[in-house]
Every structure is written in structure tokens, then in C-alpha cells.
């Protein structure tokens, strides 16, 4: 852990502040937790590459003073894969929203997990497409309202954790913006992990999801994360199995990392051992 005092301004591009997120948006809390994780890991910010696509969550790559790529919608993980293969020594972080991760970007998500490439994917789950007008997303859920589902959605939602586990991610965790310190600790472990890491962070969108579904303002939505989530294995699940679990679901340190396996193949080829 670094001994220097945390200085938020050291890690951001101050010229882009104030940020463009709506009042009450949880994404700023995610940014704060992430920067504190980077600080406590003692990472050189010049050795970090952050890649994002399009959406509210993707603005993070413009705010941090890291090497960053603000790419096209749904393709953040593909760009990050290319960067990581070209420079395996860098720390690759990919913040994504509902669409970048699991709608247009869903195919790339499962294959990055399958390959187990050393990238940290942060899925900022606000259950809505916020930047483009409040349409429902793959994470909105059955019976939820949105601008494109005024009479409620009939689509079932993805479970990010179960999908990541099934696809082969070797580190899978979940937290919320209410649990900001826990969130920071999980991000630290995810970034330090050698392999494909997924951290789902429940983050509120009072502007669209909260208003449409009468879930209240930002404070009330954050209180729901306090009241409706528990740590993995909590006894509260015995009486209320609908509670959302938080914590680390997968931490596999034995699975081969993709870049290392690729280097081994190159070495074999160079020796002519077909």
C-alpha cells in the first residue's frame, strides 16, 4: 500500500470538471472508489490503460488522468484486449454500463471471460440506458418501466454474476455505491487478480430508473442498497432469499491467463516445436 496521502486531483483531468453526470447519479462514487483502489495498490497511473465505450459510465475514461481510450459502443473489451495483447504489462481497466457490457457488448463480455485475459471489467449497473433517454436495458428487469417500456418491460434481466461465472471469469464480485469502502476493497482485489475480473456495482439512476419506477430520489435508492443487499451467505437469506448478495463469488488463481498462454505459444513456435 502506498504511504502517500490520497489526492483526488492527482488522478483526474481537472479541466473536464464539473462532470456531466446528473445530480444524484452513483457513477461519481464508483469513480471515487476506483481511484482510491488504484492509490492503495500503489499503481503508477502511467502504467494504466482505461478503455470505455459509450454511455454515462463511459465518461469515466475522460475524467481520469490515465492513458485512456473512449471507443465505440459495446466494443470497449475488444479494444482493451488488443491493448493488453500488445502491452501485457499494463493494467487494463474497463468501466461499462448495461449496454456496453451486456447488450451490444454481451458477446465480447462472454469471450473475454472465456479467454481469461487480464482485464478488470467494471459493470456499473443502473438498470437503464441513461445517456440516450431512459430506455430499458438487459439489466432493467421484468415489470420495470422505462421510456421504451411505458407499460413495463416483459424482458427478464441478466444476472451479471452468474453470467460472468458461467462464461469463465476467474474473479467475480458484486457491491453497491452505498458500500463505497467495500467497493474500493473489491476493486483492489479485482485489479490485482491475474485474469479476467468482473466487478458488478449497483449504482442508482434517479433521473430515469428511479423516477419511472417510483423508487425515490438518490438517497432513497442508495438506502435500498443498504436494506436489500447482504454479504454472501448471510443468515438473512434464510428468511428473505430475494436479498441481493455482495462479495466475492469467484477467485480462481489457478486458471491460465490468456496473455501468458499466448506468449508460451509464441515461444513454442519460435523453437519450431509444432
From TrEMBL:
Write down the top EC class of this protein: oxidoreductase
State the UniProt keywords alphabetically: Oxidoreductase
Query: What SUPFAM superfamilies does the entry give?
Result: Thiamin diphosphate-binding fold (THDP-binding) (SSF52518)
Its Gene Ontology molecular function terms? 2-oxoglutarate synthase activity; thiamine pyrophosphate binding
UniProt GO BP: cellular respiration; small molecule metabolic process
Q: Which PANTHER family match?
A: 2-OXOGLUTARATE OXIDOREDUCTASE SUBUNIT KORB-RELATED (PTHR48084), 2-OXOGLUTARATE SYNTHASE SUBUNIT KORB (PTHR48084:SF1)
Q: Which Pfam families match?
A: TPP_enzyme_C (PF02775)
Which InterPro entries does this entry report, sorted A to Z?
Answer: 2-oxoacid:Fd_oxidoreductase, THDP-binding, TPP_enzyme_TPP-bd
Q: What is this enzyme's EC?
A: 1.2.7.3
Q: Which residues form the Thiamine pyrophosphate enzyme TPP-binding domain?
A: 54-201
Q: Which named protein is this?
A: 2-oxoglutarate ferredoxin oxidoreductase subunit beta KorB
Amino acid at each position: 500500500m502506498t504511504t502517500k496521502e490520497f489526492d483526488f486531483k492527482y488522478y483526474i483531468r481537472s479541466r473536464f470538471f464539473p462532470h456531466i453526470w446528473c445530480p444524484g447519479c452513483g457513477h461519481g462514487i464508483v469513480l471515487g472508489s476506483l481511484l482510491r483502489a488504484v492509490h492503495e495498490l500503489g499503481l503508477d497511473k502511467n502504467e494504466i490503460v482505461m478503455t470505455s465505450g459509450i454511455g454515462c459510465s463511459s465518461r469515466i475514461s475522460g475524467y481520469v488522468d490515465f492513458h485512456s481510450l473512449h471507443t465505440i459502443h459495446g466494443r470497449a473489451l475488444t479494444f482493451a484486449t488488443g491493448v493488453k495483447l500488445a502491452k501485457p504489462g499494463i493494467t487494463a481497466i474497463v468501466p461499462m454500463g448495461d449496454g456496453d457490457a451486456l447488450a451490444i457488448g454481451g458477446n465480447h463480455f462472454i469471450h473475454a471471460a472465456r479467454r481469461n485475459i487480464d482485464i478488470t471489467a467494471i459493470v456499473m449497473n443502473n438498470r437503464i440506458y441513461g445517456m440516450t433517454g431512459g430506455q430499458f436495458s438487459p439489466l432493467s428487469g421484468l415489470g420495470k418501466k422505462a421510456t421504451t417500456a411505458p407499460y413495463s418491460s416483459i424482458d427478464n434481466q441478466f444476472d451479471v454474476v452468474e453470467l460472468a461465472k458461467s462464461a469463465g471469469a476467474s474473479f467475480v464480485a458484486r457491491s453497491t455505491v452505498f458500500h463505497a469502502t467495500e467497493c474500493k476493497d473489491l476493486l483492489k482485489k479485482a485489479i490485482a487478480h491475474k485474469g479476467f475480473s468482473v466487478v458488478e456495482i449497483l449504482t442508482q439512476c434517479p433521473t430515469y430508473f428511479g423516477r419511472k419506477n417510483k423508487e425515490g430520489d438518490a438517497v432513497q435508492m442508495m438506502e435500498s442498497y443498504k436494506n436489500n443487499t447482504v454479504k454472501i451467505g448471510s443468515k438473512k437469506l434464510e428468511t428473505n432469499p430475494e436479498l441481493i448478495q455482495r462479495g466475492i463469488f469467484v477467485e480462481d488463481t489457478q486458471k491460465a491467463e490468456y496473455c501468458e498462454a499466448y506468449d508460451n505459444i509464441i515461444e513454442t513456435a519460435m523453437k519450431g516445436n509444432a
